[in-house]
Amino acid sequence: MLRFQFPPENPADAGPGCRSRLYERFVDLIPVVTYASLLWCITVFLLIYRCISERGEVEILMVKLGATAERELSLGQWWGMIASAFIHVEFLHLAFNMYWLVKLGSLMERGLGSVKTAVFFVVTAFVSTTYQLEIGGYGIGFSGVVYAMAGFMWGAWPRYTGFLEGFNGRTLRFFLIWQGLCFLLSMSNIMPIGNTAHISGMLFGFLLGMWAHKGTKHGWRWLAASVAMTAGAVMAVVTAITG
């Protein structure tokens, strides 16, 4: 019944059948991983902005910072599949992603702890960026990870109802509606958007969230699906490097 259950608007509506974050709650934890990610994204943005203002070689700088297209990947820059997520060129792009990073990332870190959150950021950045490059073309930005967090909370909230403090039905509807608008903006050539990173990130996050919700015994199918997505991304990177 809870498989695709939409999160309620009010945490009080979660119902007595939902376990209220019984496991791994870190109420007083300082979300250092979230803040460190925020700081690095802002630092990278400022470095790029200074390079633009000084009319420097922006593309060279971005590649050094991790921006990875097919050429860089073929040369072995596999780590760019993670680093690309922390690169933003436009201020509005940065502001949008950093707002949701702080809002959802700090909430996730209080629920899962810093180590698991760090692993989540790295893996979801790798998966979403890789699928974006392989299916939707070159892309940068933290949007794939942001959508992965939204997907994770969508799947995991019945176990971690504490997520409802900052992620509810309105939040999920916003992400889904915004994604629809992103498709329109892309198809109209108004704005280039990494839609594949969004979709793959949310799907991957949802699979992990369902695994967290169900547990390994009852959620092994969700775990297997997330492993398959990760394996597909790894194979794509290995093929690009060795091919």
Fold and architecture overview:
- The chain is mainly α and 243 residues long.
- The chain has a single domain, classed as Rhomboid-like (Rhomboid-like fold).
- Helices cover 67% and strands 0% of the residues.
- The chain is built from 10 helices and no strands.
- It has helices at 32-53, 58-65, 70-74, 80-83, 91-112, 114-136, 143-156, 169-187, 195-218, 220-242.
- α1 (32-53) runs antiparallel to α2 (58-65), α5 (91-112) packs parallel to α7 and α7 (143-156) packs parallel to α9 (195-218).
- The longest helix has 24 residues, at 195-218.
Secondary structure: elements and pairs:
Blueprint: H1 32-53, H2 58-65, H3 70-74, H4 80-83, H5 91-112, H6 114-136, H7 143-156, H8 169-187, H9 195-218, H10 220-242
